[in-house]
Every structure is written in C-alpha cells, then in structure tokens.
Amino acid sequence: MTDDSETKMDQPTKMTFDRLRRDFEGFVEGAVARGSQALDTIGVRAGEPVPAPVDIYEVDNNLHVVVDLPGVSSDAIVLQLDGNVLGLLATPAEDATKGKIHRKERSVAAISRKINLPVPVDGDSATADVSNGVLSITLPLAPTARSRSIPISTAAPAAEQGSTMEPMSAT
C-alpha cells in the first residue's frame, strides 16, 4: 500500500511517462505505416548509399575482408584499392514487385563503404568472390607487413676482434 503523499508525488511523473509512451507508440505506428519513408524520419535518406557490415581478420599472411551484400550479384560490385583504403560500391537489383504494395521494408539502396585496412597489402594478388550474399575478399599482406623471424648471431667481443674504437668523450 502507498500513502497519499507518495501517490501525489508520483502523479506528475506517471502523467509524463504516459504521455511519452503515447508519443513513442504514435511514432512507431507512423513509421511502420510509411514503410521506407520512415527512414527519412530518423535521418536516413531512402535511396542513398548505406554502409554494409564488415569483418576483417588476418590468417596465414592474408587479410580477409567479409561483407554482407544480400541481393547483390558479382557484376553489380565494384572494388577499388587505393593505397591502404579499400573502396566498395554495390548496387542491388531493382525490386521487380508488381501491383499494389501493402508493406515495403527491404531496401534496394546502393551500398557504399571505404575501409581503412590495418596493414599494407599486395593489391595485385587480391581475389574476391561472392556467394549467398556474402562478399569475401582475400588480400595477401605486402612483404613489408608480413611477420618474420630475425636471426640473431653471436658477435665476438670487441677486445677479441682487435677493435680500435676509442670511448666517446662528453664535450
């Protein structure tokens, strides 16, 4: 049970939350009813290029870039390597739906992405393929970026080599 003072203090707060809930529900209902136009409501323009999710990982002297591109065929993808920046532009096929549309949630917007690669790569040996809406790019690491062991030799002490080096003096 609550006392009267607690109830009176909670009343303005309850009214504020009720109003906020009604406003939010109205926003969601309006967005669903408007379909792709709802993107404009939250600041994303329909038809503008959108970023695609990307995973980047390194295995066996290769950098692998994996990009989700649902509904995009290989001939609708352009890849460009400029220094250490991988550019991607993909254009999904136009929706061929005929008749009256009752709901439209899937986007056919172009996908655009510039990806800063974390290590230098050999672009001349790069390969890419697309399967089931997933683009896989393999970029061999540039020789300068590859991990390698550095052999350590044991040098004879300077006295044994007949060194003529004199100690440096502080001037």
From TrEMBL:
SUPFAM superfamilies the record matches: HSP20-like chaperones
SHSP domain boundaries: 45-155
Family note: Belongs to the small heat shock protein (HSP20) family.
Organism listed in the record: Stratiformator vulcanicus
Record InterPro entries: A-crystallin/Hsp20_dom, HSP20-like_chaperone, Small_HSP
Alphabetical list of CDD domains matching this protein: ACD_sHsps-like
Lineage of the organism: Bacteria, Pseudomonadati, Planctomycetota, Planctomycetia, Planctomycetales
Superkingdom of the source species: Bacteria
Pfam families named in the record: HSP20 (PF00011)
Record-given protein name: Spore protein SP21
Signal peptide (residue range): none
